[in-house]
Every structure is written in C-alpha cells, then in structure tokens.
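Reminder to self: keep the SMILES exactly as supplied, no canonicalising. Ligand is flavin-adenine dinucleotide.
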Amino acid sequence: MTDQPHLVIVGGGLAGLLLASRVGERLNGQLQVSLIERAFPKAPQDSLDTRATALSRSSKERLASWGFWPDLEPSAKAINDIHVSRQSRFGSALLSDDVFQGEPMGWVIENALLQASLLDRCKRAEVDVIEGREVVDFSATVSRPELVLDDGREIKADLVIIADGAESALRQSLGIGVHRRAAVQYAIAFNCETDGEDRAVAYERFTHQGPLAFLPLPSSGSSRPRYNVIWCAHQDTQARLLRLNDRDFMSELQSMIGWRVGKATKIGQRAGWPLSVVISRETVRHRCILLGNAAHTVHPVAGQGFNLSVRDIHRLDGLIHREMSCDAPFGSLKRLSSFALDSASDHEQTISATTLLSQLFDTPSPLIDGFGSAALSLLDMAQPVKRRVAEFGMGRR
Ligand SMILES: Cc1cc2nc3c(=O)[nH]c(=O)nc-3n(C[C@H](O)[C@H](O)[C@H](O)COP(=O)(O)OP(=O)(O)OC[C@H]3O[C@@H](n4cnc5c(N)ncnc54)[C@H](O)[C@@H]3O)c2cc1C
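Structure tokens returned for the bound complex:
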C-alpha cells in the first residue's frame, strides 16, 4: 500500500498502454499507476497476419520528445508519398516530398511491436500491469471510484481512465450515451505481398463502395514488399469477398487497385467487421476520463484514430502532471473538465474530416461524381490545398 494518488487505466489497447507508459515513467515514485487488461493480443506467427498503425508525423515527433522513438524507429517504415486515386475516373493526386519538405509524412509500425515496446516501458516504470483480469463492476458515484475485478479483487482509484474500447462497458455504467452512425461500409483488413518495388508509398483509392488503402509495411524475412490493406465496401460485397478463396480474392483486389503496387502474390488472413462511428457524448465525469476508442471510434480511412489518441494523451499527460501539485489531486471536476474543453475542437475536426473522406465518393450522384474527380485533380495542382490535406494527415492542427 502507498499513500500516493492512484491512477487506474482500464484497457491495455494502444491508447491505454501509451498513457500508462508515459505517465508511469514521468511520475514514477509520485503516482501509483495500474493498467488492467483482460487479454493482450498475441503477436501473430505469420508476417502476413500482422496488423499495423500509421503514425502521423506529429505523433512521431511526440513519441520522440518522450524518448520512445529510438526503440520504435528500427521497426518502422516511412511513408514518403501518398498516392490518391479514384476507381474508373480521371483524377489522381500525389502527396509528396515537396509538400512534406523532405520529411516522411508518417511511419507504419506493426501493432504487436508497438504493444511489446509500450508494455516493456510500463514494466520498467513500475506500472502495476494487471493482465488477464477484467473489470466486472464499477462505481463512480462514491468519493473515490471503486472497481471490482473478475477474481473478486476491489480497487479504489483517485482517477480512472476509461480506455476499454468502442463498446466501453465502463462508459455505459456511467450512463454516458453515444452518437452512433450505423455502418454504411464494411471493412476487410489483411496483409498482401506483391512483386512490385518497395517504394515507401501508401495508396488510397476511392472506389464506388468506399476507400481501399494500402499501407507499406516494414520489411520482413521476404524480399518482397508487404502492405497492410483495408478494403471498405458495402455489406453484400464485403460478405461475398470474404467467402472467396485467396486466388479469386486477389484477382478482384488486383482489378480494384490496378498494377501500381505490382502483382499481388500472397495474402494473409482476412478479418471483416462493420465500420460504425461511435462518439461518446461526454468525455469527463467525476474522477473519470474517457480515452481512445471509448471516446471516439472513427472510420479508419485516413488512419487517424490512434493519432488523435496520441494528442489526447499529450493533453492528459499535462493535466495529470498539473494535478500532482494540487492539494487534492483529481478531486475537482472543474479542473478535469479542462481536458474536454481543450480536446473538443480537435475531436470535432478529426471526426468530421474522416467521416467526409469516407463518404466522398460513396454516393451515386453526378454532382458528387464530378466534384470528386475535380477535387482530386485540383488537389494535384493546388499547393495550398495539398498542403492542408497533407497537414491533416501529418496530424497538424
Ligand atoms: C483496421 C483498423 C486500422 C486502423 N489503422 C489506424 C492507423 O493507421 N492509424 C491510426 O491512428 N489509427 C488507426 N486505427 C485506430 C486504432 O487502431 C485505435 O484508435 C487504437 O488501437 C486505440 O484503441 P484503444 O486502445 O482505444 O481501444 P482498443 O484497441 O479497443 O482496446 C481496448 C482494450 O480494453 C480491453 N478491455 C475492454 N473491456 C475491459 C474490461 N472490462 N476490463 C479489462 N480490459 C478491458 C480490451 O481487451 C482491449 O484490449 C485503426 C483501426 C482499425 C480498426
């Protein structure tokens, strides 16, 4: 037991892990930090079954300023250019080095490697990682929130960070509602190996049913380039694609992306799910703050979900640090609410931009059709517009 204030983070996804490792390192010896995760995902055996996250330039800069980047950089793949195009229409844009001023726009890192690195940092920072246990009861009406684990253990917290994912049970037990946009598109995620050149280029293709994104992956044992692919389509198409054998699936994939990535030679396991957008109506309650997918689950079209969480974690890190010099840390709802105020416009902009991008070409209207192609052509010509789009991708606000 300790008389230090107790921060409890529920959910050891990437958002919970990053906050735990940052705050655990920064406030080691002043703040007791616990991280509760019911089951960390196991690292896949096959390099074609991994999942990956694109980190924006501003997320990379943040991780570098916290001293996290040297551990991650050897496993990260730079994205120098992003090629944006549209299925069976004129118009494409290359967001290139001229916009990014010689710096990569972002980096791709495999989730298993990011998770392992953050978990290692948590353990070195003496974060109490409670693995394999689930929070089954939660009460925040009392002066200090109480959590009950599935082994019967009771934990009292001075501040609870709710990072338990899109369908957050803790959010529900606080009675916080959500804005939910039912799925219009359905995703298929998988990795793909090709015989093309390994060129540090990401591809975003807007099809009639939603975006198709190819993110270049760091090299593995094979000499061939690997991509992490997210293919968004309407429900019936997604269901049909999921039923195809690998050969027929790759043939449809090839006809959709063309030859810009080379010939698809092999794919890993496919996973499919509906792309709902779930936004919490509140992010702060008495001694509780929502983080990550529990606060905002956005469309993966522009790879923004975790990057938004990195910016939230930076804001939370500042707030938690300031609270530590107060007489009663985390006791004032007014002070905690500064997090909601500070993050509101960033949340609104990111949610609107990703929703708009995901729907831009998913409408059979001649007006939208014409506008869509014109927008892509303009994007390739107009430097200020291109710069703005690039800045959004890089996480600048
Ligand atoms: C296909 C796809 C691609 C993406 N690509 C990108 C990208 O390129 N760039 C980007 O920025 N973002 C991307 N995102 C978004 C990004 O993955 C998420 O924003 C990020 O992983 C943060 O998730 P999280 O930690 O908030 O939630 P989750 O990953 O859902 O983690 C929640 C955790 O809480 C645990 N949990 C739940 N309930 C309990 C409980 N009661 N007790 C204990 N533990 C509990 C769960 O086991 C889980 O591990 C992508 C998302 C998808 C789906």
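Points to follow up:
The CA atoms of residues 93 and 381 lie 8 Å apart.
The two ends are 42 Å apart (CA to CA).
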